[in-house]
Write a structure and sequence with these properties.
With 212 residues, the protein is of the alpha/beta class. 25% of the residues lie in helices and 22% in strands. α3 (127-140) links the parallel β5 and β6. It is globular and about 45 Å long.
């Protein structure tokens, strides 16, 4: 099985590439710049901008992982336009699209009427980013001709701490670990996503993950 990772040079993208290799998948890194990683010799590289990708470019992919991220306040709408572009070029191909999503759109009440980004505790600085990603997710839910999966991290998404290899999964609501925290490392998030390729529990659904 060939997994294409878009945004393979990003912090999360690198760990997704590493985890996919560790699980025995063939990996193609899609990146605008040269792939700089110690496992480079094990990875095919497609050097191309996400917005220039075509259906033909992805013809050898079984799974496409979208790890694209943008933090420039002037370009936050690219979370929406990039995902729209990917669903367009993967339309009716039966290839699986897996998206590194945001936590802000997770619900905090059983009725699923209040999102994490709507709560007073949500950091104001992250509000525009979370809102743009939430809109992208809302649009994705209307797509019915692509086999997609959206993985929301925990509220605390830790890029620094070593992965434990252990995680718990939920669906549309924020979940807490034994310490009462919504927390996950980048590494454990990557494992959860790559595991889902085999498990196939969340086709055309969103799920979330927490660590210890």
């Amino acid at each position: 099985m060939n997994i294409f990772v878009i945004g393979a040079n990003g912090r999360q993208g690198k760990l997704l590439v590493k985890e996919a290799i560790n699980q025995g998948y063939q990996v193609t890194a899609v990146t605008k710049s040269e792939l700089i990683e110690k496992h480079q010799e094990k990875v095919n590289v497609l050097k191309k901008d996400l917005f220039d990708l075509t259906t033909e470019d992805l013809k050898l992919a079984d799974v496409v992982i979208d790890a694209f991220g943008i933090f420039d306040p002037e370009k936050l709408d690219q979370h929406q336009t990039s995902l729209s572009h990917l669903t367009d070029i993967l339309s009716k191909t039966n290839k699986r699209l897996m998206i590194v999503g945001g936590a802000g759109s997770l619900f905090v009440n059983p009725e699923k009427t209040i999102r994490l980004l709507d709560t007073p505790e949500f950091p104001k600085d992250y509000q525009p980013l979370a809102q743009s990603m939430a809109i992208a997710f809302e649009n994705l839910q209307k797509v019915n001709d692509v086999k997609w999966t959206y993985l929301s991290p925990a509220a605390i998404f830790d890029p620094e701490t070593q992965a434990t290899g252990q995680y718990q999964i939920g669906e549309d609501n924020v979940i807490l670990n034994q310490k009462g925290q919504s927390y996950v490392t980048y590494g454990d998030y990557a494992k959860a996503m790559i595991d889902e390729i085999k498990n196939q529990k969340f086709i055309n659904q969103r799920f979330t993950v927490i660590g210890e």
